[in-house]
Design a protein that fits this description.
Layout: H1 2-26, E1 28-30, E2 36-38, E3 55-56, E4 64-66, H2 71-80, E5 88-96, E6 109-118, H3 126-151, E7 162-165, H4 166-172, H5 178-189, E8 191-195, E9 215-227, E10 232-242, H6 245-255, H7 264-270, E11 277-283, H8 284-291
Helix pairs in contact: 1-3, 1-8
Length: about 300
């Protein structure tokens, strides 16, 4: 019972601290966000088409869907409310992913900080992407230090985050699967940003699936850490510089999804009605699990689990 109270105290400490530091470092304000969206506007994240959203009807709307993530809604909101360049938003995102394969780090209930900020055309570079990754890692490191001083849980993160490209990984470790490569680089570096997810590598295969209509597959990636408790890699964040007009058209064509050009959200990008942006999602329960050194996500999150 005592461990339960210590864990709950730790969960609040991690969430309150990291949220504040993330907002300060990236110049973000907290906003309210939807738990469900109307179908047909293109704002829903289809997770590369691999999962079916939970949906229901209302007395006034034939079909609405529980959000999978807020990747597109955030960028739409930046434009709708006139956020200036360099400013952005973050919010608590709660999702139900009923098709998720549950595991010690996966739940059908997904909770994350979703964030997005306005950038310029000149910011659409790998250098800028790395700068933002370093700022997020700095917020994580400072949170870890506070957890160590307040709860006595020893820090495990390296001083700096490393960077590697998915094509580099394929060349270095050609006989391993993408997940096995992630395991090896996370173990080697302790914390690493893997860049370039979604597009095809020289082998003709993608490192992993990524929806075609929000991240630029050449300027996106995942933040992974080495989980010393489970002795395995753990993804804490998926993020990237978002598509511009040219990249959106190319990635829709590559994915055979050109009909999406007619959706309201996609038209807004093509007609310059939403700003260029960078954004991502950072797992709340994942981060609590990692920093509080828990073996299973159920120790920091209430959900439904198989026996």
């Amino acid at each position: 019972m005592k461990d339960y109270f210590k864990t709950q105290k730790g969960v609040k400490l991690v969430k309150d601290t990291f949220e504040k530091k993330l907002a300060e470092k990236l110049s973000l304000i907290r906003v309210s966000a939807p738990r469900f969206l109307k179908v047909g506007k293109g704002l829903q994240d289809d997770l590369a088409g691999t999962q079916t959203p939970v949906s229901f009807s209302t007395k006034f709307c034939e079909k609405v869907e529980i959000v999978h993530s807020l990747a597109k809604w955030k960028r739409w909101t930046l434009g709708k409310h006139g956020f200036r360049q360099g400013a952005g938003l973050y919010t608590d995102m709660d999702a139900i992913r009923k098709d998720e394969d549950v595991s010690p780090i996966h739940s059908i209930y997904v909770d994350q900080w979703d964030w997005e900020k306005v950038i310029s055309k000149e910011d659409r570079t790998e250098e800028f992407l790395r700068k933002i990754v370093k700022q997020i890692f700095s917020a994580l490191k400072e949170t870890e230090s506070l957890v160590e001083s307040e709860l006595g849980i020893k820090s495990t993160l390296p001083e700096k985050i490393s960077f590697i490209d998915t094509q580099e990984m394929e060349i270095m470790l050609p006989d391993l699967s993408p997940k096995e490569r992630e395991h090896e680089v996370a173990k080697k570096f302790g914390a690493v940003f893997i860049k370039g997810i979604g597009g095809k590598l020289e082998s003709g295969k993608s490192h992993d699936l990524r929806a075609a209509d929000y991240d630029d597959w050449t300027l996106d990636g995942d933040i992974l850490v080495w989980d010393t408790v489970r002795q395995s890699s753990m993804e804490l964040s998926s993020m990237g510089i978002r598509v511009d007009k040219k990249v959106l058209l190319r990635q829709l064509k590559e994915s055979g999804l050109e009909e999406r050009k007619e959706l309201e959200y996609h038209k807004a990008i093509l007609e310059d009605k939403v700003p260029l942006s960078i954004g991502g999602g950072i797992g709340q329960s994942r981060m609590c699990m990692f920093l509080l050194q828990k073996k299973h996500i159920k120790e920091v999150q209430e959900s439904v689990w198989p026996e």
